[in-house]
Specification:
single chain, six-stranded mixed barrel, globular, binds iron/sulfur cluster, six-stranded mixed beta sheet, 32 strands, 30% helix, 34 helices
Length: 947
């Protein structure tokens, strides 16, 4: 045996460690057989010192990941490798009365340098060998890959126009050149892009119904100013790690924090109250609290009379809102009536869609009745009974949702419901934060409408530290991103930027030529419609299910998908910034229909995903530290954050701007060679594809390597980054506060002035400037009198049980995990070491033991739809009725190749198929049936004991 002194051991160990690490990480010359010389350490401290030597430090963040947190990091680069990250701290508090955002980050971000080098990283273009999904691949050159894709794409564009090609867009977008590249490319060839917001179950349709915008939010430092914070289906300790400190600081500052979740989650631990309703019963809880607020006169009548439709008159004979056309011959269908108690007369409310007065402000002499039942004389001379929406609401709540009734639905004691209601109403400001996780139930819209009602009755919407928040973004065109996406010449940019985003048709027109509604597209072309429309899966009040309503909506053109129903599905599919076969409930159906019939499926990604596995070709995208990009979002942190290029792309991977530039060049050459000049876009507009490369680059201004120029251009034309340059970002810690919120509307439902020394509070314009809301009534609209809402009894918010799904004993629930944003980290060894290392379901330990299931047993979760297998993790923190699966495991990580998404029928909700009612119509990220990846009923059986 060789004996080493301690010093020799340390030297040998340190040298070995460095050699091993370099062998793992170095990408400069992997074939070299020469080992680097051992560093000349003099003692063990030198080993430590070596770890802290860097060639340079670069500003970085995690761009194409759909993490909205936008954290600034310093990246430590040595010999062409990012060895580690460290949180940067460039953020300045909005003002001296508030805590700052520093530092921002999470464990996923801190391990990206390792993730980028992991075993599932794609480094070269690859073509499948053998059948799709067979897992056998051949490395090919970029020339081979691009010319094959260009040939097929030109074939298809020539034969079918843009509708023969589809970009399956996921949510992992950034706001810089890489996302702009894809948008610009598909815009220029006229191919549709899927609007994925509803497809991934992130569309807050209850926000659209009530406020006219699904996306409304402010900055997280406003949480600090709240007196009563309600984390409702929101688990910031896990899903908003960089911002969770504002909850704790608010509590330290005197706020009470309430966590409403069936499970005792990581945020409940830090709350004053944990309220644990049965899964899916949240609307009953919220409405019972509303009943208490109304019964005990804790509501704000003046606020309600001005800001909401609750004083509007409803005809109780038809259940329709009383319209001017009912009372005045030739009157408007979009003017609605108040009863003026002062003048004892009907008064046509200002600010409605049909009113010429664009204000919510009422004349001083007008005193609207909030509670009323009476008769009014119609244009026909007959009289009709009317009541205010508020009276109908009060009567319904008194009848159906007193705390005692809600207690039997929710499992929450009536005393606690009353206390919650009184505390909420009695707080100086009360804020419900209920974000994307709250969109994934069948009746999410009812839950959100009920939450907003509670915030509104108590006068909190539009107020500092109060209201209801669902998550918002800076408007896309405000970032110059849309300018780069557009197929228009960049010279026309000025015209584009001048378009009003407030105009409904403007919103539709702006994006209709680029996007198709994704849930509906997959219902029609992805094999999901049959089950989603099945009567057995949806609202039991619909004997024929949602299918006839989907048919009607399609026939009326409410969801303008392309190709149209009945036409062949696209021949060429691109998957970009997403992983549709993982994130779609029953993604295997999309695989067996849309993917199966396609001639060519191309995935662009930095790692192997489920969708990549089922593709014909994979093009390797550069990792986040290997390309330049930016992120910004007004929710949480109002900063532009730079993700600079720290190292060269690994292997032969390429930044997307370069990749799409080259593909555009190939397509342009191929089209020119074949003499094809112009094709039709999927909306029938002309698109010139000859010499596409020149159009893509704007005649060479933005060539394949001009990513910094593209980013500088985006910064220069975006109002949010006005006056900010790339050099500024580099010099100032990688993040600079935005200068404006950009144009409003779309994904930016903020509607407030912006001040750089104040937190962002959404919806202030409606309260402070008396601007009408972008709804039919011009107000927070709680009463929807569309026939389908009336048919289902959903004209006002109410509680409905989730669809039964076969009478199984458990409800499938989910949430984001602490160890992965989406699928990217799901197979990351460092993160897997912090969990069980494979997919697990969480079960209540008492319930599991009663069924003979022990911790880590293999179980089968099943219902009428399908089944999947996973290990059981037993915990007392889970509600007895829950089967809880954390987000984003890839199907291939499960033993049978089927994930928990396989058991979700994801029924279409009929009220979300409405497309012809004021503000309820499809537009990009506005209104469409959400996919419902949770909320189905399941049963659990043990398969085998823990090995
Ligand atoms: Fe921040 Fe998101 Fe990166 Fe984590 S993954 S460090 S939260 S940007």
């Amino acid at each position: 045996m060789v004996r080493l002194s301690r010093r020799e051991f340390l030297q040998a160990g340190a040298a070995g460690a460095v050699v091993l690490s370099l062998g793992h990480l170095s990408c400069s010359d992997p074939t070299s057989s020469e080992l680097p010389a051992a560093p000349g350490y003099s003692d063990w401290r030198d080993v430590y010192r070596e770890r802290w030597r860097w060639d340079r430090v670069v500003r970085g963040t995690h761009t194409n990941v759909n993490c909205v947190s936008s954290c600034a990091w310093n990246l430590y680069v040595r010999e062409g490798v990012v060895w580690r990250e460290e949180q940067s701290a460039p953020y300045v508090a909005s003002n001296a009365s508030l805590p700052d955002w520093n530092p921002r980050g999470c464990q996923k971000g801190a391990s990206c340098s390792d993730l980028m080098l992991g075993p599932t990283r794609i480094q070269y273009p690859m073509r499948r060998v053998g059948p799709r999904g067979g897992g056998r691949w051949k490395r090919i050159s970029w020339d081979e890959a691009l010319s094959e894709i260009a040939n097929t794409t030109v074939d298809v564009l020539a034969a079918r126009g843009g509708e023969g090609v589809l970009c399956e867009l996921g949510p992992n977008v950034d706001y810089g050149p890489n996302t702009a590249a894809a948008m610009r490319f598909f815009g220029q060839i006229g191919a549709p892009i899927t609007d994925s917001m509803a497809q991934i179950g992130d569309l807050a349709v209850g926000g659209t119904i009530t406020l006219g915008t699904p996306h409304t939010d402010g900055t997280s430092d406003d949480w600090f100013r709240s007196d009563y914070l309600v984390l409702w289906a929101f688990n910031p300790a896990v899903t908003r790690i960089p911002d969770a400190h504002y909850v704790h600081e608010a509590r330290y500052h005197g706020a009470r924090v309430v966590c409403i979740a069936p499970d005792y989650n990581q945020s409940a631990i830090h709350s004053d109250f944990w309220i644990s309703p049965r899964p899916g019963s949240d609307a009953a809880l919220a409405l019972a609290a509303c009943q208490v607020v109304i019964e005990e006169n804790l509501y704000q009548p003046d606020y309600l009379c001005e800001q909401t439709d609750l004083p509007f008159l409803v005809r109780t004979d038809t259940r329709r809102l009383l319209r001017e056309s009912d009372v005045v011959a030739g009157g408007s269908d979009e003017c609605f009536a108040l009863w003026d108690e002062a003048g004892d007369r009907l008064y046509w409310a200002p600010g409605t869609a049909g009113s010429d007065e664009k204000t919510l402000e009422l004349p001083r002499a007008v005193r609207p009745a909030l509670e009323l039942r009476r008769e009014v004389v119609l244009a026909s001379g007959q009289s009709a009974p009317v009541a205010t929406a508020f009276s109908l609401l009060r009567e319904r709540l008194d009848r159906e949702l007193r705390p005692e009734s809600a207690s039997t639905i929710t499992g929450i004691s009536s005393d606690l419901i009353r206390r919650f209601a009184r505390d909420f109403a009695g707080a100086g400001s009360a804020l419900i934060i209920s974000q994307w996780g709250s969109c994934k139930n069948y009746h999410s819209d009812l839950i959100q409408r009920s939450q907003i009602l509670l915030a509104s009755l108590t006068g909190n919407l539009g107020r500092v530290g109060g209201g209801w928040r669902s998550g918002a973004f800076v408007a896309l065109d405000g970032m110059g991103l849309v300018a780069m996406q557009e197929q228009l010449d960049i010279a026309q940019l000025g015209l584009l930027m001048a378009r009003s985003f407030l105009d409904k048709e403007g919103v539709r027109n702006q994006f209709e030529h680029m996007f198709v509604p994704s849930t509906i597209f997959h219902a029609v072309h992805g094999g999901l419609g049959e089950l989603a429309g099945d009567a057995a899966q949806g609202d039991p009040a619909l004997p024929d299910g949602a299918a006839p309503y989907l048919q009607h909506a399609l026939q009326e053109g409410h969801f303008p998908i392309a190709p149209a129903p009945g036409e062949p599905s696209p021949d060429v599919l691109f998957s970009f910034c997403g992983n549709v076969l993982r994130h779609a409930p029953r993604g295997e159906r999309i695989r067996d229909t849309l993917f199966k019939s396609a001639r060519l499926v191309v995935t662009i990604d930095f790692r192997m995903s489920e969708t990549g596995r089922q593709s014909d070709m994979i093009l390797p995208a550069a990792g986040w530290y290997e390309k330049i990009g930016i992120k910004y979002i007004a929710s949480f942190v109002p900063y532009i954050t730079l993700g600079d290029r720290a190292v060269a792309p690994r292997g032969e991977s390429k930044p997307e701007w370069e990749l799409f530039s080259n593909l555009a060049e190939q397509i342009g050459q191929e089209a020119t060679r074949r003499g094809i000049d112009e094709v039709r876009s999927f909306r029938g507009e002309p698109r010139r594809i000859a010499n596409l490369g020149a159009r893509f680059s704007d005649d060479g201004r933005f060539g394949p390597d001009a990513q910094e120029d593209v980013l500088s251009f985006i910064l220069s034309v975006s109002s949010a980054s006005s006056g900010v340059s790339l050099e500024d970002l580099r010099a100032e810690g990688g993040a600079i506060r935005i200068s404006s919120l950009g144009p409003e509307g779309g994904t930016a439902g903020i509607y407030s002035d912006y001040e750089t020394d104040e937190p962002v509070v959404p919806l202030r314009d409606f309260l402070e400037k008396k601007r009408p809301y972008p709804t039919l009534s011009g107000r927070q609209q709680f009463y929807i009198d569309h026939p389908w809402f009336l048919m289902l009894g959903e004209e006002l918010p109410l509680h409905k049980d989730p669809p039964a799904g076969g009478g199984r004993p458990f409800t499938l629930t989910g949430g984001h995990t602490r160890w992965s944003v989406h699928a990217m980290w799901r197979d990351h060894a460092l993160m897997l070491r912090l969990q069980r290392g494979e997919p697990v379901i969480f079960l209540n330990e008492d319930v599991a033991r009663a069924r003979g299931i022990a911790d880590h047993d293999l179980v089968r979760v099943h219902n009428d739809v399908d089944s999947f297998e996973a290990r059981a993790k037993l915990t007392g923190a889970i509600h007895p009725s829950q089967v809880h699966v954390y987000h984003a495991w890839e199907p291939y990580q499960f033993r049978t190749g089927k994930s928990h998404q396989a058991v979700s029928p994801s029924p279409l909700k009929v009220t979300q198929l409405v497309g012809d009612y004021g503000h309820l119509h499809w537009a990009y990220a506005h209104y469409e049936p959400n996919q419902v990846p949770r909320d189905t009923r399941v049963d659990v059986q043990k398969i085998e004991a823990m090995a």
